[in-house]
Amino acid sequence: MAFELPDLPYAMDALAPNISRETLEYHYGKHHQTYVNTLNDMIGGTEFADMELEDIVRKSSGPMFNNAGQIWNHNLYWRCMSPDSGKEPEGKLGELIQRDFGDYNRFVDEFTQACVKRFGSGWGWLVQTPDGKLEVTSTPNAENPLLTDSTALLGCDVWEHAYYIDYRNARPKYVEAFLEIVDWDFVASRLKG
Questions:
Q1: Which segments are annotated as binding site for Mn(2+)?
Q2: Whole-model pTM over 0.90
Q3: 145 confidence band (pLDDT: 50, 70, 90)
Q4: What are the boundaries of each domain within the chain?
């Protein structure tokens, strides 16, 4: 089975000024597309050819894992943002953030630190553990919560290609801008139990 680049749930310029059309053209249109093309080239004629993406991420290693992981990570990342955001999480997600972080601002601080302090390339995550607790984590390169028992609720790409056009080397400003456009309804839809 061949993987395809999923359609964005918004127009290429819809996240501006937080994330520009130019960034999306490169990040989504070039980087993400390259991961898809490369993985498709790699899996042909292998035991991975008919696997679901999540299974490839869990069972592969090396370059195949890197491309599969980046596809999965980016598929989630694009869905985590919306031009119609601008609010704090409500309902069950808001309650869980209050319970596990104290308040929304403490969550923002912890999430921002996880993203900013990730050395080199990687991801910042809000995850739900098997016992229902929310935690902030960070992973290097293409790694993600699929490799754990936790469920990824929110993922923030902190590879330079995610922010360099708009923010140059100012990763903290990018993370702040990202958090302003999080689609909390989508994030809440990923909660278990």
A1: 27, 74, 157, 161
A2: yes
A3: very high
A4: 21-80, 91-190
